[in-house]
Design goal:
Number of strands: 15
CATH architecture: Alpha-Beta Barrel
Radius of gyration: 21 Å
Number of helices: 15
Strand order of the largest sheet: 1-2-3-4-5-7-12-13
Bound molecules: 6-O-phosphono-beta-D-glucopyranose
Strand content: 5-15%
Shape: globular
CATH superfamily: Glycosidases
Structural class: alpha/beta
Length: 474
């Protein structure tokens, strides 16, 4: 599938390289009203307009993992996956007064225990686009009280699970809510307000730093185990432009890279935001809501390691106009690369070398930083997919080359010095994909919606098992 030459790439991953599954609470657990769970942003949108969700499948059932987690952890183990990253849902762990909800806590204790029993280590992320709705109604990430509420939720989670969990993450893809909810207007509340998006991004950055600070304090006190680590996960994507760029094209690259990548990389390695980006924003009339003391808060946001989600590259060029029809500043517009290979189901470009290019950028610019591939995968409409003689979905022709090519570029980056420790495949078991619901299937394991969410290996599962057991990317 790749347009790159794969022939010279490394094909072996280090012995201590780990393989795992990436998932999230709101996309898998279901049980949307059990354990006193509060309404979150996805429940709010589903309740308000179910037609916005593919085939009218809203946020309510996930992939039924809340009821099937023991079975799912056993499947991960069988596939040779030693870890899985999921998220605690803020709306399940905390009540509407901001206190720990004991029933929600009990659910996660049981889930983590089941994973341990199956030989799977759970990495815990605290936020996956799923703010409790009542906090959104109070202004969401623009309201400092909500930022503080997140810090207090993080503190409660560290205190409750601090002896059980070794790997923590504050946020998954913190760039996505600013973009999807406030720039593109694609997700509820459908705003198209660039300045608001940046205020939201700033609020998330403070929340991240406050959570890291709470983690360090609780670790020093012995509440969090001494070997625990904290990190952040983002969908970093190398920005490319045309082959013969103008200065304006390069400027589009600088701001795209600045807002999507360097913003988070500087925050987690230096405890600062990129000054050139903040300056350009200000020159274009976009001021961040900075208060006295914020610098010291952000300074505490440095992490132990990082998660790198990679699906597609970003290709940009100078925008035709530097404002849109609403008066928002525009710094870049999409560049359509004539040679792009597309995943037509998702509308995303497939470009495995991008994972290597960004890995080498991190190795050059942030040499101390350890990281892992925290998501990578391919979602395809499989409703009418061919089945093998034994009834399994035959996904080998597209899923195997996708994962193989990305893994080979990862192996190549490691061979050239990248500090990448492992790989989590996104949605090893098919799961609910936000407003795309079950349109595009990512799994090595099928979830049959017509048969009460029953699980069945797809044909590609055997290939995955081979790779995880040999570390050879055949
Ligand atoms: C990542 C998210 O952006 O991509 C996941 O962390 C998401 O939550 C995944 O499901 C795949 O994207 P989508 O929109 O196809 O589900």
């Amino acid at each position: 599938m790749s347009t790159q030459s794969q022939t010279d790439l490394a094909v072996t991953l280090p012995d201590d390289f780990f393989f795992g599954a990436a998932l999230s609470g709101p996309q898998t657990e279901g049980m949307w009203q059990a354990h006193g769970k509060l309404e979150n942003m996805w429940d709010l949108w589903s309740n308000q307009d179910i037609r916005a969700f593919y085939n009218r499948v809203g946020s309510y059932a996930g992939n039924d993992m809340g009821a099937r987690y023991a079975e799912d952890f056993a499947l991960f183990h069988e596939l040779g996956l030693s870890s899985c990253r999921t998220s605690i849902q803020w709306s399940r762990l905390m009540d509407a007064d901001g206190q720990l909800n004991p029933e929600g806590a009990a659910f996660y204790h049981e889930l983590f225990a089941a994973a341990r029993e199956a030989g799977v280590e759970v990495f815990v992320n605290l936020y996956h686009f799923d703010m409790p709705a009542y906090l959104f109604r109070r202004g969401g990430w623009e309201n400092r009280e909500v930022v503080e509420a997140y810090a207090s939720y993080a503190r409660a989670a560290f205190t409750e699970f601090g002896q059980e969990i070794e790997h923590w993450f504050t946020f998954n893809e913190p760039i996505v809510e600013p973009e999807q909810r406030y720039v593109h207007g694609a997700w509820y509340p459908f705003h198209r307000d660039f300045a608001q998006a940046r205020r939201v991004q700033y609020g998330i950055s403070l929340a991240h730093a406050l959570a890291v600070d709470a983690f360090r304090t609780l670790q020093a006190a012995g509440t969090v185990r001494a070997d625990a680590k904290i990190g952040l996960i983002n969908c970093f994507t190398p920005p490319y432009t045309r082959e013969d760029p103008t200065p304006a094209d390069l400027e589009a690259v600088r701001m795209t890279d600045g807002l999507h990548n360097r913003w988070w990389l500087d925050l987690v390695t230096k405890g600062t935001l990129p000054t050139d980006v903040v300056k350009t924003l200000s020159e274009r009339g976009v001021e961040l809501p900075v208060r006295a003391g914020d610098e010291a808060i952000l300074a505490r946001g440095t992490v132990d390691w990082l998660g790198f989600n990679y699906y597609q590259p970003t290709r940009v060029q100078a925008p035709a106009s530097d404002t849109d029809e609403l008066g928002n500043p525009v710094f870049a517009e999409p560049y359509v690369w004539p040679e792009a290979v597309m995943n037509k189901s998702r509308g995303w470009e497939i470009y495995p070398k991008g994972i290597y290019d960004f890995a080498m950028t991190m190795t050059r610019d942030y040499p101390e930083l350890e990281w892992f591939v925290s998501e990578n995968g391919i979602g395809i409409e499989e409703h009418h997919a061919a089945r093998t003689a034994d009834g399994a979905i035959d996904d080998v022709a597209y899923r195997v080359p996708f994962v193989r090519d990305h893994l080979r570029w990862v192996a190549q980056a490691i061979a050239e010095g990248a500090r990448c420790r492992g790989y989590h495949y996104w949605g090893v078991i098919d799961c609910w994909s936000w407003n795309n619901a079950y349109k595009n299937r990512y799994g090595f394991v099928e979830v049959d919606l017509q048969d009460n969410y029953s699980r069945r290996y797809k044909a590609s599962a055997e290939w995955l098992r081979q790779v995880t057991s040999t570390h050879v990317i055949a």
